[in-house]
Design goal:
The protein is an alpha+beta fold and about 425 residues long. Helices cover about 65% and strands about 10% of the residues. Strands 1-2-3-5-4 form a 5-stranded mixed sheet.
Amino acid sequence: MSVIPRAPDRADAPARSGALPGAGFRSPTPVSRVLRLCLHALLAGLLALAAGRAVADSAPRAGWVVGVCALLAAVYAAGVLVPAVGRSTRASALWLASLAAVWAALLVVSPDGLWIAFPLYFLELHLLRRPWGIAAVAVTACAAIGGFLAHSGAVTPGAFLGPLLGGAVAVATVLGYQALYRESERRRELIEELITTRAELAVAERGAGILAERERLAREIHDTLAQGLSSIQLLLRAAERTLPPDAPAAEHIARAREAAQENLAEARRFVRALTPPDLEHGSLAGALERLCSGAPGPRVRFSVSGTPRVLPTPYEVALLRIAQSALANVVRHAGAGRAEITLTFMDASVTLDVVDDGRGFDPSSASPAASDGGGFGLPAMRARAETLGGLFTVESAPGQGTAVAVTLPLPVEAP
């Protein structure tokens, strides 16, 4: 019987790593280990049965039968124990060919040799590529039928049905196990991917939470401590103006005003230290320009109008986040070819405009569920602007693009 070694490939990888157990192959699961032990026990039992029957029946060639059975058991055991059989297709092919040759000799000396065909089916399906394995099973079945007919001399349906049905059962079992193994591997890979994705999401959520907390602290410090110290400084300056120059309290008021001014500067340093990473290494205009240059999809142009000025950190954070959210909507939903972000500085306000030439939509029908999925949809952008006393507007129509504008009033600086 000819054997063609099966080269390892992707389609046969499950079969060689954990399908029906052959010899020398590493079993990665308890099921495959049990199956391999069952195959070893089956072959050993069948060889013992053939040798025992020959001795018990005092067959003319009982000594030959016992010797060939022992040789077949030794060849099989060698393949099980030699590691090279599990690593090399050439070694596994040589081992399978040796088994086939010894089994053919057993068929010659004993009709009971046909029983060994059943474990050979599983080895052939495991060691050969699928088409060649099925062909080898068919050849083995024909050899078993021929050996039985040569010894019995009578043609009976059982002589054909036994080997053929055994071969069919072996093929169905191996193919079914390989299909289950591949499905199990796909599920395992999917579970590993889900675990990895969950870990990445946890890291991303933690980072987003840290950034959100930094923004919240910066806003709270600016809106409470900084504003309160600024108000104290203004009140002390007003009180200082109402006192005569030689008033005893003038010196204390001046010191209190200086302390308030120093603590106001310290509070503003805290706010700057809590600035988002996008604003740490430059101005708002620089952060917006980097945002436009790195945006995927449509071409985005950034421009500044008016005289740039330093804005309070909560203003810069709000404008940057609104720009990021609006641009994300353009990339994901607008289908635009061009977009433009404009930052305009005026005497009493600052305005951010995000305009695109995309498909547009009906603003009256927009809902929170239609946000961009990143947590900064239209309602969130509006809330950011209104928190700072600003105005948020959206102008759009189907087929006419979209314009998002936010205007924030600039705070009055203390003299």
